[in-house]
Predict the structure.
Amino acid sequence: MRLVMKFGGVAIADGRKIKSVADLVKNVKEDANAGKTKELVIVTSALFDVTDILHETAPRIVKEGQVEKVKEFVVAFRAKHDTAASDAITDPRVLTKVKSELKERMDELEKALIGVCLVGELTVRSCDYIVSFGERLAAPILAGTLQSIGIDAVHLTGGDVGIITNDDYGNAQLITGAEETIRARLTSLLADNKVPVVCGYIGETKKGIITTTGRGGSDYTATLIGAAIAADEIWLWKETEGIMSADPKIIKDARKIPYISYREAMELSYFGASVLHPRAIEPVIEKQIPIRVKNLLMPEDEGTLIGKASEHTTKAAKAITLIESTSIINIAGRAVKSISEVAARIFAVLAAEGVDIIMISHGSSERTISVVINSAQQKKAINALRNINTEGAVIRDFTSNSNVCAMGVVGAGMAGSPGVAGKVFSALGNEGVSVIMISQGSSEYNISFVVKKEDAYRTAQAIHDMFEMGK
Ligand code: ASP
Ligand code: MG
């Protein structure tokens, strides 16, 4: 049995938690040793909050331009990781070794921060390098903790195991052919009965420059590795029950979904369910490797199993997600232009600015196009649209509204089954909620729509009730 297990976020918030993660790894390993040998690959993300801290600190340091501030930051940051290591690692010899590794990495981080501070500029490339330290500090701590309880763990960066990516910093993707290297490197460690502890989230370009695969990217690392080494299963450990029918903070009776298909899970993760990295499903679909989202607080629980579509997955509407901080931009093209010309220009400028579009719809008679985007990107999008007409008048005018919420209803059973959309929108009708925009992909796995922010929660509840989701 070959398993990839990923840990991250609150699961590794401090030394005590890292210690219990290590105990769990040992249990899984030894449990299987009684029967079939279990080969484990561990993927770790940064300690809780660390990636956020690095993402906030780097631009702040550049803005302040004071080397003293870098030093202050590094002292506190080092203390956080040293304390975690001291609390988690019980063997003093291992601890000494890990602390010296941490010091080395911390010095590199300090140099990088001083560099951007003095240059006064933070490129996407240097940002990836700086945030990579989150995982590069966590991996030695977790590997050391495992060593101190008798497991032969080795820590490796993404580049070390062959995660070679393109140079799309902040959103890098594996290059073709990389899988073979990953397989060769990891299987030779496994053959020596080692437990590799791999940094999630980060890779390297062919030239050895560090990249990241986007926020939450450790899930993606785990599934890339799982596919490359033909794992039997991939377990993503979280402090949640699994994939839920809705956000339990918003919807009462939200329940764990025991079984979900790859396609459904993909739709959910693209549509704001923060439980998975959006690209995490892709690598395993072809090989049909099952993914389990497991709950650290209830390790015996089966969690949610993500696998191929089956009779379990046919529920018409299984889950509802909302993306709360969204803005809708309505763009009216010039009457003399075709809808394709208008669309071409709009999408070109939005793409050039790196604006991610969540939903699109158009009204051809008026040549209007509406796009829904993340509110954090609203300013960028509006600036881009403002400049469109400098290259020929294409747009007549546009308006935006950030007081909206995008929602997605997901379920494999809606494909080809009439009446699902009818039910969704009659739930809205019953609540007296009016729909601002609608879209449904032709794959019919997802109906998405936009409502006013203030209507969002009760709409979601009404739909959740209507389809008895989670039951
Ligand atoms: N540490 C990275 C992040 O916070 C990657 C991950 O957690 O999966 O986005
Ligand atoms: Mg994280």
Q: What stands out?
A: The two ends are 32 Å apart (CA to CA).
